[in-house]
Specification:
Layout: E1 2-8, H1 12-23, E2 28-31, E3 47-50, H2 60-78, E4 83-84, E5 88-92, H3 97-109, E6 114-116, H4 118-124, E7 135-139, E8 143-146, H5 148-160, E9 164-166, E10 173-176, E11 181-184, E12 189-197, E13 212-215, E14 218-221, E15 238-242, E16 248-252, E17 260-265, H6 284-298, E18 308-310, E19 313-316, E20 323-326, E21 331-335, H7 345-356
Parallel strand pairs: 1-2, 1-12, 2-9, 5-15, 12-21
Antiparallel strand pairs: 3-8, 4-8, 5-7, 6-7, 10-11, 11-12, 13-19, 14-17, 14-18, 15-16, 16-17, 20-21
Helix pairs in contact: 1-5, 1-7, 2-7
The structure holds flavin-adenine dinucleotide (FAD).
């Protein structure tokens, strides 16, 4: 088979690249080892946190904004919602990363935020058992985005406008030659002018980039009082909270189709895992004990026993930023999500499509250059 571009791996980044390439009329084929929107990579579960003011790097603002614009446009066509801007609370001591970082990122992004004093947070958000010096920054443009439904929507839209998709097809080799790049699978070989490799935790299996996949389970909870509305999304919007010991909690409230989601920062142990050998069991003591103890202490009205959990993976890069862009004459890559990539994936797909077709990027992405290490 011959085509213009092959996208290998249709998770968050790859599905978006496929969509943005197909949307400009490029002859594109997508190959995914699992079903579309599966739970063996990094993009499963219902939701991810969404922010435009990104404390991870000022250059990310434009990418998040582009994602929001693309998802809004897609939603107008499909009737679905891909981002809900519920607002977000960044909590901690005045010099903590969420508070200082959110304020700085918002100022750089030109996004309005509101500072909330300790007493204001206590009054508006009584679910929080605050430390004496905790304050917050309210970011009204933040919220949640939908993970699995968005990946499926990217692929469906790509197919609608002409992409060919092979799910359940494992790419076993990518051979770059003079006349093209050949993507090999057990059932067919596809030769293309260019390939986008977006295999998430498996990226290092195809290109020699320094990445560290990390086992990071997802957890969902419910209030101790099942009749309580205190942890509904409207009352308990998305949040990032850092404690004095550097650990922290992040998450958001429940709605009709999802539970309260909370994760613990600073407790991840399983680094440099082989994604093919990922431990997919949940170990009560190792996986749950620290998170439950933190919930017990900081959200006393939330039942600290999770009601649902799933293994997942974050793929860390050495500087915590993604690797997006041209890696060789015929090869582009997107990976190294470092735990904050979902909100950017549509914007990253658009960047990859522009780089593939030699259009001007819509923003400076030198900080994501895969050759920077
Ligand atoms: C617990 C957790 C919480 C997170 N929270 C947030 C958040 O709040 N906000 C946020 O923005 N981001 C968040 N993230 C990060 C976000 O989920 C990731 O940035 C994003 O999912 C990464 O997508 P990806 O395309 O790189 O990887 P994936 O979605 O895993 O895609 C890679 C794809 O490649 C396929 N593949 C691999 N090998 C092959 C092969 N040989 N042949 C064919 N296909 C192959 C895989 O099956 C997979 O579908 C979180 C991540 C985790 C784990």
């Amino acid at each position: 088979m011959r085509t213009d571009v092959v996208v290998v791996g249709l998770g968050a980044f790859g599905s978006a690249a496929l969509w943005r390439l197909a949307a400009r009329g490029v002859k594109v084929v997508g190959v995914e080892r699992q079903a579309i929107g599966h739970s063996f990579g990094s993009s499963h579960g219902t939701t991810r946190l969404f922010r435009v003011a990104c404390m991870e790097h000022p250059g990310l603002t434009e990418i998040a904004r582009r994602s929001l614009a693309l998802w809004t446009e897609l939603g107008e066509r499909t009737g679905e919602t891909y981002v809900r801007q519920t607002g977000s609370l960044n909590v901690g001591a005045p010099d903590s990363r969420p508070v200082k970082g959110a304020r700085q990122a918002a100022a750089e992004a030109g996004a309005p935020t509101t500072d909330l004093s300790h007493d204001e947070v206590r009054t508006r958000f009584p679910q929080y058992n605050l430390a004496a010096d905790d304050v917050a920054v309210w970011d009204p443009g933040a919220g949640i985005c939908y993970a699995e439904p968005t990946v499926r929507a990217h692929v469906a839209e790509a197919e609608r406008v002409g992409a060919t998709v092979y799910p359940h097809t494992m790419v076993t080799a990518i051979d770059v030659g003079r006349d093209g790049v050949t993507v090999r699978t057990p059932t067919l070989d596809i030769t293309a002018d260019q390939v986008v490799i977006s295999t998430g935790a498996w990226l290092s299996k195809f290109v020699p980039v320094r990445l560290s996949p990390r086992r990071t389970p997802l957890f969902w909870f419910q209030p101790k009082d099942p009749a309580s509305d205190a942890f509904r999304l409207g009352n308990f919007p998305s949040f990032i909270w850092e404690f004095a010991d550097g650990k922290g909690l992040w998450g958001h409230g429940s709605d009709e189709d999802f539970l309260v989601k909370v994760g613990l920062d600073g407790a991840d142990r399983d680094r440099d895992v082989d994604p093919d050998e990922l431990d997919r069991y949940i170990h009560p003591r190792k996986d749950i004990a620290d998170l439950s103890a933190a919930i017990d202490q900081h959200f006393p009205d939330l039942d600290p026993e999770p009601v649902k959990l799933m293994p997942c993976m974050v793929t860390d890069s050495p500087d915590g930023q993604f690797l997006v862009g041209r890696y060789g004459d015929r090869v582009l890559i997107a990976g190294g999500d470092s735990g904050h990539g979902f909100k950017h994936c549509a914007g990253i797909g658009e960047l990859l499509a522009r780089q593939t077709t030699k259009e001007t990027p819509y923003t400076d992405v030198s900080f994501l250059d895969p050759h920077r290490f």
